[in-house]
Each structure stands twice: as C-alpha cells, then as structure tokens.
Amino acid sequence: MIFRSLQSLVMICLSVAMVMAQTTSAVQQKTLLGFDREGSDRERVLEKQFDSFLKKENLREWMKRLSARPHHLGSPYGKDNADFIAGLFRSWGYETEIERFDVLFPTPKTRLLEMTSPEKFTAKLEEPVVKEDATSGQKSEQLPVYNAYSVNGDVTGQLVYVNYGVPQDYEELERRGVDVKGKIVIARYGGSWRGIKPKVAAEHGALGCIIYSDPRDDGFFAGDVYPKGAWRNENGAQRGSVADMPLYPGDPLTPGIGATANAKRLEVKDAPTLTKIPVLPVSYGDALPLLRALEGPVAPAAWRGALPITYHIGPGRATVHLKLEFDFNIVPAYDVIARLRGNERPDEWVIRGNHHDAWVNGAGDPISGLVPMLEEARAVSELTKTGWRPRRSIIYAVWDGEEPGLIGSTEWAETHAQELQSKAVLYLNSDGNSRGFLFVAGSHTLEKFINDVARDVIDPEKEIAVFERARARAIITGDAEQRREARDRADLRINALGSGSDYTPFLQHLGIASLNIGYGGEAENDGIYHSIYDSFDHYIRFSDPTFDYGIALSKTGGRAVLRFAGAGYLPLAFSNFSDTIGRYVNEVTKLANDERDTIAEKNRRINEKTFEAVDDPTKTFVPPKAEPAAPYLNFAPLQNALARLQESTRNYDRAMVEATSGTRLQSSDVQQSLDDALRQVELAMITERGLPRRPWFKHQIYAPGFYTGYGVKTLPGIREAIEQHKWDEAGEQIGIVAATLEQTAAQIDRGTAILNTDR
Amino acid sequence: MIFRSLQSLVMICLSVAMVMAQTTSAVQQKTLLGFDREGSDRERVLEKQFDSFLKKENLREWMKRLSARPHHLGSPYGKDNADFIAGLFRSWGYETEIERFDVLFPTPKTRLLEMTSPEKFTAKLEEPVVKEDATSGQKSEQLPVYNAYSVNGDVTGQLVYVNYGVPQDYEELERRGVDVKGKIVIARYGGSWRGIKPKVAAEHGALGCIIYSDPRDDGFFAGDVYPKGAWRNENGAQRGSVADMPLYPGDPLTPGIGATANAKRLEVKDAPTLTKIPVLPVSYGDALPLLRALEGPVAPAAWRGALPITYHIGPGRATVHLKLEFDFNIVPAYDVIARLRGNERPDEWVIRGNHHDAWVNGAGDPISGLVPMLEEARAVSELTKTGWRPRRSIIYAVWDGEEPGLIGSTEWAETHAQELQSKAVLYLNSDGNSRGFLFVAGSHTLEKFINDVARDVIDPEKEIAVFERARARAIITGDAEQRREARDRADLRINALGSGSDYTPFLQHLGIASLNIGYGGEAENDGIYHSIYDSFDHYIRFSDPTFDYGIALSKTGGRAVLRFAGAGYLPLAFSNFSDTIGRYVNEVTKLANDERDTIAEKNRRINEKTFEAVDDPTKTFVPPKAEPAAPYLNFAPLQNALARLQESTRNYDRAMVEATSGTRLQSSDVQQSLDDALRQVELAMITERGLPRRPWFKHQIYAPGFYTGYGVKTLPGIREAIEQHKWDEAGEQIGIVAATLEQTAAQIDRGTAILNTDR
What we know:
Chain A is α/β, with parallel strands linked by helices. Helix content of chain A is 41%, strand content 16%. In chain A, strands 1, 2, 4, 5, 6, 8, 9, 10, 11, 12, 13 and 14 form a twelve-stranded mixed beta sheet that branches. A two-stranded parallel sheet of chain A has the order 3-7. Chain A has a two-stranded antiparallel sheet with strand order 15-16.
C-alpha cells in the first residue's frame, strides 16, 4: 500500500442478531440485502461451497513465490510476477489480459547526504543484510532507499527540525521565530502522508527535505527491533512516493488520461506532482548525528522522539549537503485483468483489486493481501466448474505501480473511464493483511451490505464472527457514546476513504461505490513497512504465521464479490448513508464555529497582550499575527439538502419494504432498471469540475486531505475551505455540496419510483 | 521541599481592577480586606517603605553562605546555618531562640545493588564531581544517594518494571498476568510522591524496590543535561524520604507528640511509617543495564521512558540483589524561632516559615525560598526602627528536617499544639523560588486576601502585576471554561494544599489557615532536585540569576505578613470558600457516578466476554475480576450542609457590608471578638478523630492522598472512600463532612452575630 492506510480506518462493528430483529422485519432478518428469501438461502449454500475450496497452503506457496525477489514497478521480477498471475487466472478459466501502460518512474543515480558542519558525517543510506532474513541480501535487484518523484537537487543549508512537517508544525516554528527559508528541513515520518512534508517545506521556502524514521514511531520504542523482534532497526528506512497525489495520483505525465503508448505526455519539468525540492528518506542511524548536532531552542515536548538526545530545533552550526540525481525513465506497468462474464447482466461489473508491485520484496505489502484474493478467485472458478455462473460480471484486477502512485489502477481507470462509469457497480480493494480485526472503509451506501458479510465470517482465533470481534474492540477502545453505538446501532460504522490504495481512482475520480477491506491490528508489521525486511521470513514470524487470516480475507472478499455479483438487485442501502451525511454536516458546522472561536480567541490574546505577558523573555517568542474575524456561514442550503436526502431515504426504504412483500421485484426487467438507478447514486456524488484547485478529485463527500494525504476529509470542499479560512470559498462549496446531495436524493428517488411503479 | 510541590499547585490568577469595580462597592475597591479606608492608605504607605528596604545583594550573599556546604538534618553545617540564621534574627531585634528536637534520622552504612543474571553488573550509586560546579566535590560531607526511612534488607529476586508504581500500574500488571510477589520492582520517579512506590510494592508482596530517574521525566528528554544544560545527567539521582507521611509526618518515633528530650518514643521496629521493604534510588546510568536485561511483555506505551531501549516488564532472567543497612541514629533538629511581639493583639500569631535543611547543598531547595524570607524579616525589622509595630505578633520560623519528613515543623507544631490552636491566625509557607509565575495554594478562606496581595506586586520581567501575569498564563493554558473564569471571576482560584512542605502540620493537623507561595515555571530546575547539583552555581545559571524573583517573593510574603499582622480584623472572606466547597461537592458526586458506571461497564464486559473477544491469544492477558455493583450514595446531608454554608456566607457578607459602612468595626473590642470568631473558622474544619486509618490528619477539606502522597484529595474522607470502593465508609464520611461543614457555617454565623450586634 502506498500509505499505511489500514491504520486510518475504523473497524466495522456489527450488531447482534437480536438488535437486527428489533429494527427490520422478520422476513428481512433471514434474507440478504439484494436477495429474496430463496435467493438468500441459495447464496448461503453457495458460500459454504466456496469456503470449502479455500486452501491456505496456496497462500503460503504463492507468497513465497511472489516475494522471492524484488518486484517494484519496472523490474524484471515484477513482469515475471504479472505473467505468473495472469497464468494462474488463465488456468482457472478467466478471460485474462495484461494491460500495459508506459509511465514515469524515476530511480536514483546519485544519493548523497552529508553533514559539513559542525563535523563531517556522511549518511550510509543502506539497509544491511540480516542473516535471519533470506531475501535481505538481494542487493543487485533492490531499489535503494529513496523517495520517488523527488526532483533532482544539489543543495546545502543549515538544518532545521520540523517535527512531522505539517502546517501546524510551522506555526510552532513561527512562534519561536524560526524560519526555514533557505534551509534544509529534517522531518520525522508519521503525522501525515510523507508527500505532505516536502510539499509544506517547499511552501515555506526550504531548499531540501530529509525524512527519517524515528524509533518512537516504529523502532525500539514500539518493540524489539528486527531480527530480534519485528520493529525497524537502526538502519531500516522507509521508501515511498512523494508525488503530490492529493493533486492527482497516477502517472505524473498523463493527468486525467490513460498512459497508453501514444498518449499525450507532459514534459517531466512541467509535471505538477513532482516535488519542488529534493527529498530523501533515511534511517535513524543516519539521522542521529544530524539531530544531535542541532542547536537552537529545545523542541516542544510533543515533537521529541525516542532517540537518546535532547531534541533541538536549530538552526545553528549544523549544516548539511543533499545531492540527488534521478533517471527519469518511462517504464512499463503491467496490470493483470481477469474477467468472468456474468450470465444475466454481463454489463454490470463487480471489480475486485489488489496490487502486485512492491517497494522491495513486499511479502506483507502487498502480497499478503494479494494471495487471499488469488485464492478467492480460484475458489470462484471452482464454483463455475459446478455449473454456477455469476449474474453480473466479475473482474479481478491485479495492479502494477501502486507504490509509486496508484499508477496501474489510475491509468486503467482513466483509460476506461466512460465504460467504467456506465458498467462498474462496485470496486472492492484490499492491500495487505495480517492477524487481528476486520477493518473496512468505503462508501456508506455499502455499510449495511458489508456489515452483513462480516456477520457471516468466523474469526479464526476466536471462533466468533469477525464483526463480533470488531464490535468488542469498539467497546473496549471507544468512549461512552461509541460504546453505546457499538452495542445498540443495527450496523456498526465504517470509516470514510481518504487515500492510500487503489480505490482512489474508482471512488474519488469516477464515482464508483468502493470498499477497502483487510485484517490487522494484532501483528507487528509497521517497522518493516517499505523496507527490505518486508519479507516472507518476517511475515511468517510476525504477521500471520498460519495464514488463517489470509483465508478469513478470502472468505470476506469472496462473500462480498459473490453477493454483489449474484444479488437480484444491487445491495445498496441509504439510511446509514444519510445518517452519516448528517454527522458530516454537523461536523463542518461545528468546525466553522470552532474556527471562528479560535480566531476570536487568538485576536483577543493579541489585543490584550496575553502572549507578551506569559512568554519567557530569555527565549525568543513571536506572538501570532491577528487575522480577520471569521464570518458566520449560511449552512441552510446544506441542511435543506440533508433534509431532502433523509426524506428520499425514508421513501426508498418504505418502497423497498413494500416491494419485497410483493412479486414486482422478481421481474428481471425491474431488477435491471433498479440496478441502473442504484448504480448511479454514487455517480450523483461527483461533480465534473471537482474540488477547488484539484479537479481530478470529483467526489463531493470523500477526498484525501490536501494537507494530510491519506487522512480523509469528508465534505472536502467545505471542510478544507473552513480549515484554510477561505470563507468565500466555504460559502460557495456549501452550495455545491448541497446541490450534490440534492442530486443524490433525486437519484435515490429514481430507484423509489421504479419500486413504486404499478402500485 | 520534600516533594516537588510547586508543580502540584495551580497558579493564582486575578482579576483586573475593572472587574473588581463591577463586583464590589466603590469604597471596598480602594480598601484592603481587614482594613478601613484610612488603614488601607497607611498600610500601602508602609508597604512602599518596606519595599525600599529590600536588597537583592543580601539574597545572593546569604544563598552563597548557606549553600556553601552540605547541610542536611544532623550535619555540622546544618547546625552552623541555624546559628547563623538565629544570629541574623537577633541582630535585627527579633526575640530569637533555637528549639531543639531529637529525632530519628537513618543514614546508610551499606548500599549494594547488583544484577546477578543474565550478566553481572554493580551499580555505581555515585554522583560524579562536575568541574563547573564548585560544591559538587564535597564528598566527605555529602549524604550518599539513598531514601531515608527505608528498612534494612538483603534481598535477591527477579526484576519487574512497574512504571510509576502506583496502584493503577499494578492493575495493568495483573491484566498481563504479572505478579510481583517475591520479586524486586523497579519504578521510575514521578506520577506520585516517591514514598508511595515502596508502599504499594510491599502491598503487592514485592521484596524490594528500586526507584530510578528516567531521562524522559527530568533528563535529556526534557533538555540538555548538566553541566551543558540544567537537566539531570546520566549519573544524577534523587535522594528523598520514603517514610509513609500520608499516615503521619514528622519524627517516626513520636507520632502526635513533640520529639522533646524526654518524649516517649516508639522503638524503631515499631515505627509504622518506615517502609516495609528496602528501597534505593538510582540514576538512569545505573538503571539502564537492569532495564535492558528485562524480558517478558513489552511495557504499555504510556510506561515507556526515554532510554534507548525497548521497555519490557519482566520477569525473566534479570535478577538483582539489593542490600541496604542503615545507622538508625537519633539526631538533633534545630528550629530557629524569631518573634516580633504585636503591640495590640500579641496573642494573635502570624507565622511565616521556610525550612533551612537540604539534602545536600540545596541552593534551590530550600535556600532560594529561605533567603527572600530572611530579607523580608530584615525589612520588617527596619520598619520597627521607624517606630512602627505590628498589631499582631509575627513569628518567623526556620525549620530543620523538612526534607526527611517535615520534622522540624511537625515536632514544633505538635509540641505547641494547644497554644497554636488558640493563637495562630495564619501559617504562611515558602520553600524554593525561581523565575516565572506566582503560584499559591492554601485555605480558600484566604483566596481573596492573597489575590489582593498579588495585585500589588510587580513582576520584575514584565512590569505588570504578578497576578496579571498569572492570569495571562491561565488564559493561555486553560480550556474555554478556565479562560472564562480567568477573565471574568473577581478573584482567581488558588489550588488546595496536599502535602510536600511545612504547612502540613499547621493546616491538616491543627486546623490553622495556611498558604504556600512561590515563584516558578520559567526556570529549569527539576533535573537537579535532591542531587549534589542543586548548587549555587546551578541556581545562578538557571533559576533566578538576578535574584529579582527572590525580591518579588520578599514583597509577596512581606505584604501578606504585614497585612495580616496589621489589619483591623482578620482578612478572611468566605464566598470564595463556599464556592470552592460547592465544586468539591459536585466533584465527589460525579466521582461516585463515574465509579459506579465504570464498575458496571467492567462487569458487563466480563459477562459478555468482551475482553476474551479482543485479547491477542498469542500474548498473556487475564480479564479483570468482576466486583459488586456500586450502590447509589445519599449525598443529601452534604448538599444540605453546603446550602447552609452558602447561606451563612451570604449573611456574613451582608453583615460585613453594613458594618463597614458604620462605626462599629472601629471598636477594638469588636475587632478582637471578630478575630476570635474568624480564627476559629478553619479550626471548625477539623475533627478530633481525623481521617479513616490516619487520625493524625484531622482536616476534613484538605489532605494529601493516601496513594498520591503530595497530590491533594479534597473532602478526603469521602473522596478516598469512593476511589477505594468502600461504599459504607463513603456514606459515613458524607455524614462527617456534612457535620463539619455545618460546624464551619455555625462558626461563620458567630462572626456575623458579632457584626450584627447593636444594629
């Protein structure tokens, strides 16, 4: 995965059957969403059969094979893996092709980081071989430690420590009178997606950016280090993309269009998603001499990591020289696309994806998510041997180039945009898997559907449903209100999707309802993320030694695919969705009030010289600058649209109850019409012009944050305008989102009308 | 100071004059509490004159002299200092005596800490000489690093890390299936008063206790270490008492009575405040090899310090041998008592104290608090040369033996208990001082008085009143409600007193209204606390180089003493007090509800097997044990008593407004009667039988926590019963506290009656 997205997802937690019984009719309790009673029963039999085909030996064998050598985008073994995977699909009877794109993928020619003052030090930039790790010595094929899509650079400057390097950190620096202009910043990993760090550093005038892995976040502070334990050792470092993906993901040279052989390409120098300054990731072994040499103010307590030093901010005598040169090559990306044609509605596509490229060997990321999907696909193919065919078409997609920037998925989605928007009914993603709890995030029109799936998968460690286990965790970790919900709400909440894996082009660019699923939370696997130690040897010691959770993922993904492909009508539901939108509306309203109060409080402190009264005169402190008071915003259009959406939802639910009690929904034509209406509900949430300053992101409900990178911003147009104190824009965006919600309600009404015809 | 009590105090923060103008009459705005208008004007002239006598050169010279050699209880230089101080007072015309007590003070003969497995290591237990610190090399006179009132012991056992070693930490251990029985625990300093750590360890069956200074709390994590910076270096360690002072402070052999020459003494073996197990403090240099050798579960994130290791809990192969032997000697303690007789009400005593003993050189603790008090006393004596005499008697007390256990103050207070309860009107304490903000804690009947004082002292760095600076800090650090109060309430709140310095016997044993004052919060002085580096050289680099805040303390203490000694009637006020009691009543009511909910939630999780559903099966986790549901408590008696107290307060305020507008309060007899009534208000808050299981602590509003040591517990009888789930006892204590509040209200009514007579 391109980001550690699993951590940003709230688990789904699901209700006990008793609660279901109270909230839905007795008939529905027995039936699956989208099915009638008989269909439900047949479906459950089918799923039992499906389960019986799953073999965990396959997972182990395929992981060993696929992670045996480094297989990043453009590598020989990456191609080999794509061919191998395509061969598997073909052997299982899928109509399989490898779709190639030609994309920009820079790799380093020169990497030099040295401290020139107060003493000389040259960073090693090297992850050593570990004898307990069989693949760690494959030096000739490993990508070195670097950040992809950094620009070339040769810069020298005083060093400044900027904590996580997010905007708020620069406010702290300003408060202490520290300016990074003309300097080189060192930021620690964490607190945001890594690409935000050089972006914000450049916005503040820095010349270069170093990102290091502090042992507090994924090293010895967290646990014993590899190979004794699972965590990042002194020389472990984190590769990763720093392209400005919150602007647009995919090939930097072909925004919005597929990077096919003859596509019109930007020149590299014009590609807006490359960084503005050179950036390099290092281990804490390499960072320690630099950080130890820093002078200036002691860093705020929250900025201090686990290195055995006093963290200072700088600047001072510590001066570093950073020189980076890259080969800006165009390389082939190989997506494996395998199709199983639906026998009734072949032009409705259920798409299931996981990427195959890794930064190095990638046993955990992505192979641990990929092999359960392969096994799922194999078991589906076994079902076809019994004569079963899915009602809708199923497409298994195995993406290349996810790590550098969701490239394989984005280019494919852009190439086939029109067809996908008229045919895709679901994009279901996974990306890595380990022991623990089911995590789900995605479109809230799918919340009820995926709750149902999770009710039917048994946790291998606990022998209770995986949703029961997730629910228990929500009870243990939640506050009183979250506990109450976990116990009493019919379904438990899924989180919204920001970014970090291949769902982004489908959901946020094309408006296709999407989910991301995976197990985790018990394994210790953060410390080898994007390093050479993300290996088969590490995985089978620390992540899912028995592959039992791999099989749980096969069962989860398989059920979701089979149900979506087999349902009489699309298993979407809207009451959880409109409930969630209601929460978002409350959140942005509260956010506007909070920001207004914060500005007023700050201005009052400035006027009353409160900062001057408190600040220690023996240290440098600069009072913040006053800013214009925030206006009250007119949220009425949003509230009216929400009311309309809630009304539409209620009408749909009522119509559905009536329809399921009659015979009308048994008509294939009605089902097909309903599918067509339902499919377009998510499409109604996108706008052609997209979000301000980033038109590629068209979804009005979900987007990755422009300054968080993987953290989701819901109602992003409104929320980010408020966060950035762009009050006029916030007002405009309220109108746009309100219109989007009205449009969504109207689309739901079309479904209702179909259900109501002939009554 | 025996505890780092400054940190436990909330600063006082005070209102601007504008607010005062809105809330009090125009007359009162100009007058000081306890004075009429003319008296106020005279008092302000007197205070100006007082200020003019203060010389910061004296502070520097006395600090250098008093901290020139180690001067702990029983040391030659301690006696020398007492004589020197007594000489100063005599030279200023005070009636001065040195009062001697003979008290138990163990010093170490043998200190051995070694690891015997998995490898051999012997702790150095030695703070090295630092060439930049002139007194750090006085080895022959320094007390070694040890904890006073540890028992002898020679124990060997597996080592277990217990975080701060407070009861909650043992719940975490239990959850992980770790038992300390028969083992030796290692705890880090912080999170509670140090004496709690061996007490709780012994309650859980540990054989011995090691306490180390983690660099996260006062070492390199906080800032650069000594001598480069101010913080604790690798070999710095913290001496300190571990006697069970929440049971009773003072000489362990003479609980409740003065340790005079012929006092009846317990045998050492019967002294209940000695520890049950041997305990030794060490530096992190000595702790690191031990902690690094620990195996077993990784410690919870909140338990991990700043050492560059993965913190494990143990137990495992790491085994330590701890051997301690002490000389249990009786040594003399020398209190210096200096009196200035009041010319009108000599039998009303204003007592002002600070201790003189230190653990080693003690430039910061206690000399930085002592020398401003000496200068204050000198300036007061200068006033007498102008013919001025205080209305009431002033007693300056310079205590010995505070560090081992508030010994000098406690033995004096016990010896003179009856006289003090009939004569003392105020005990005003200080104990250390540095750059920063005014911190005040104490009796809330004094809140308005000390607010007035702080309005009239100018901050030397900012040239605004010290209360304006404190108010600004409350605005910066507070939440919305605290900010509102800091801006709008007439007076800002003072915190309640727990323990940690010499006010404890006066306030909590005798029921004398008390305050503790000092400046701090800007200096970096935590890292040398109770080490050989608490030196003159350290103080003038890092704490208050110019002694300007020493002079601010002289002005603050001097104003408080002069006003209290000179006021026409005692400057107590009760509306802030009853407001504060109302908050405490709300707190304990809410606490009872929260504990009830917590127990119910825990039991529900146990019944529903929520823990079992979540816990990682590859690790050891033990679900908590169910406990009986908590009953609802009858808080009505407390609420009725509070209502009565509020009514009495209103009546008093009304009577006072009327009295000050007439001539009656000009009568000396009336004033004397009123003084007598007001003096007994705080006395009404104590009960003869004291708190459950610790009868020495008699105050029903304020006590140090039995399991926090310095952290205050307000309404302690009720609060601790609820915290410990002793529901029957909580019910009884509600009755006792209610009766105490009724008694307090009745005493206020006596004052009201005096004001109202003849109307």
